[in-house]
Design a protein that fits this description.
Strand content: 15-25%
Distance between the termini: 27 Å
CATH topology: Protein kinase-like fold
CATH superfamily: MHCK/EF2 kinase
Keywords: Disulfide bond, Immunoglobulin domain, Kinase, Serine/threonine-protein kinase, Transferase
Number of domains: 1
Pfam families: Alpha_kinase
Protein name: Alpha-protein kinase 3
Strand order of the largest sheet: 1-7-6-4-5
Number of helices: 4
Oligomer: single chain
GO molecular function, one term: protein serine/threonine kinase activity
Radius of gyration: 16 Å
Shape: globular
GO biological process, one term: cardiac muscle cell development
Number of strands: 7
């Protein structure tokens, strides 16, 4: 259940990110986090299972958390750079409260995402979930050309507060899809 909540919440952030990225010329293709479904099988010894789309090939790791707790981007391909930009965007969107830490997949379709947060109770987590990764990300993230294209600010460790779109100031008359609810 926890994995479904994390992946599907990250998917919602990714949809908002995609809408903002598509509005910017020259950004190009955007990663997609596929949905993870929880299914109930009452007649089975293990009544719950997760199910997701078959990605049609072996997963590649794009952004991972190493055993020592450090965040690593695996390479400098367009996919890896855009995954890093998505991480930056989520971190900035949530004012340093949430970070998508792990992303792997086949091509532009991502799965097995993880998060770090300092929000107690986020997605049912009883305790904080790797809050040190938030500080590390802010200190170590190297902005790339896609961060620049979206107009994301250079990161500094943020003090937790309310969320807003990092692209709000990008164009004068345009607002984030989040604010149009």
């Amino acid at each position: 259940l926890q994995e479904c909540k994390i992946q599907n919440s990250s998917r919602e952030y990714c949809k908002i990110f995609a809408a903002e990225a598509r509005a910017v010329p020259d950004f190009g293709v955007v990663p997609e986090i596929i949905p993870l479904y929880l299914i109930y099988r009452p007649a089975n010894n293990i009544p719950y299972a997760t199910m997701e789309e078959d990605l049609g090939g072996p997963c590649e790791q794009y952004c991972v958390t190493e055993r020592d707790g450090s965040l690593v981007a695996r390479g400098a391909s367009e996919i890896v750079l855009k995954c890093c930009t998505f991480q930056h965007w989520v971190y900035q969107w949530t004012n340093g409260n949430i970070l998508v830490t792990d992303m792997e997949g086949v091509g532009w379709k991502m799965t097995n995402v993880r998060i770090a947060t300092n929000l107690k109770g986020y997605q049912g987590l009883k305790e904080s979930c790797f809050p040190s990764l938030l500080e590390q990300f802010a200190a170590a993230h190297q902005c790339n050309r896609y961060c620049s294209i979206l107009g994301l600010k250079t990161l500094e460790p943020a003090k937790p507060k309310g969320s807003k779109s990092p692209s709000m100031g990008r164009k004068s008359a345009q607002s984030s899809p989040q604010l149009q609810k």
